[in-house]
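dumping this here before i forget
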Amino acid sequence: MHIVVVGAGIVGVSCALWLQRSGHEVTLVDRAGPASGTSHGNAGVLAAGAVIPVTTPGLLARAPRMLFSKDAPLFLKWGYLPKLLPFLRRYMSYANDAHVDRYGAAMSMLLHDTVAQHRALADGTDAARFISDEDYCFGYATRADFEADAYGWEKRRKAGYAFEVVEGKEYRAADPSYGPAFEVVVRCKNHGRISDPGGYVTALAGHFVDQGGVFDIRAVEDITLENSEIAALQTSKGEMRADKFVFAMGPWSKKIAHKLGVKVPFESERGYHIEFMNPSVMPKNPMMVASGKFVLTPMEGRLRAAGVIEFGGLENGPSRGPFDLLKRQVKQVLPDLEYDEAVEWMGHRPAPADSLPLIGANDVNGKSYNAFGHQHVGLTGGPKTGRIIADIINGKKPNVDLAPFDPMKYKSR
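structure:
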């Protein structure tokens, strides 16, 4: 078949590669180029244990204090609040223990073997060199801070995730980069790292083209429907037709999903990073700095601080507050850090209200498919998502319960 995949981040590129390997003629479409959005700017962690959503019990009580604190990792463009309120009501409705368990069970199926999925995707390509097996660490300034996070760690333990809690001084013996910043460090096992996310996805896209795939830079502006199913894409270069379409447009997916009848409650969750070029300190493992909910990741020639949550839509420019917070937090844990230059970036994460990605067909005839909404774990879950989409299109039954991710669960709402 001729299949068009829209979106050239890690999810779209993964879909394109697995479909190509299945023997299909694949065209990959993007408005800018491979890894031009969140797939460039993420923290680079293959977070197999990322099975706890942001919406945990008590979030509603904590959120107002966080919004008014300059040291909390939650920000809001206040002028955007009227548009955001309907989504927030749905989003906050999932801040309960039952949903945490539902989310954890579903995401465990998608994420648990992420390193193996990345290696299978990148095997035999130039992208393979960017993948490494490493612990993903969480650093806590005090033991009390660690104990305050007991809810999430107990959920991970019950789900079978392996982690080791060590004293800060023990961790410091293996990696002295942070000095006395952390009293407790949690080392999560069976995780991994991508040393340059943008370079990695670009290399995968290059391999796709080398193997005969077509990469087409154009903006998808609308779709044409016939009998309630997609018939064509309307793009900046004209109409595109194909046997099937896969939409992996990340935070830009909402308009087309809704037109296809998938009325998913959805927002852009804005993320920030700062890269410290040629740093004087290079930690050994990715480290979640628990006090600021951001990750410090060693990358090729630079140290990236990535994280923070801001709701402000797709159109508004970056805010100064998140960058200032990241700089203050990095200064606290790495007070002696020197570097040649600090490079700032802001991008958009796709955030469904229930935090679960949409993976599967949009209609009973399987004319179009969604593969978006991974929120914080697009890099982690991208390769397996691509494999699942290819399996579905090929008529194979994936060995994953796809009900939590089914786009058609929104059809009747």
